[in-house]
Amino acid sequence: KKGIQTITSDTTDTIESQFIFNRLKEIVSANSKINTDNLFWDHLTANFGASLVLGITRQVDIRPEVISLLKLLQDIKANPNTINKVWFADQYEKTLPRQIGEQHFAENFGSGEEVDTQIVEQDIKELKSTTSKVAKFRHTRIAHKNADQRLVIDLNFKVVEDALKVVERLVIKYQLLINQSGFTQLM
Questions:
Q1: What is the pLDDT of residues 99-130, one digit of tens each?
Q2: What phi and psi, each to the nearest 5 degrees, are found at residue 114?
Q3: How far, in Å, CA of 138 to CA of 182, rounded?
Q4: How distant, in Å, are the alpha carbons of 91, 95, 107, 157 from that of 100?
Q5: Which among 79, 13, 101, 94 is positioned nearest to 52, based on CA atoms?
Q6: How far apart are CA 111 and CA 136, in angstroms?
Q7: pTM of the shown model
């Protein structure tokens, strides 16, 4: 449970930073005195972009010493019987009818008695595919400088924001599995 809390908190911080940056962007765009050739704004934009990239790529880091969404999903896939439908539905009985828990389990994690590993595998593939350009950009432009200057990575804020949406959706989904949380969004 501690891992999902850390993942949720970190992802929420990234989403909050995105919200603040987007609000600042609205303010700057509305002010003709500062919305062109502004070194300070360019600096903020570059640093926000780097921060957003780092927030996303933290969730696909698989080094042994880190907590990440990808590692959590891999652990769930490798141990599908750790959280099963009976245990999941039992958690609902404290506040809601057990049938709602069984329904939520079936809708999100499979109709069997255990978490369907194919569903988890699909989530892993989606997480990896939507964050791959972001991670490559981090490795070649932010964390390190790639010696091959010919390497071009087509990355823009839309790609990064789409990746963050997938991370958020998966965090919400696995918060449901582990804590029966009913989040619709993290901020």
A1: 999 999 999 999 999 999 999 999 999 999 99
A2: -120, 165
A3: 32
A4: 11, 10, 10, 38
A5: 13
A6: 36
A7: 0.89
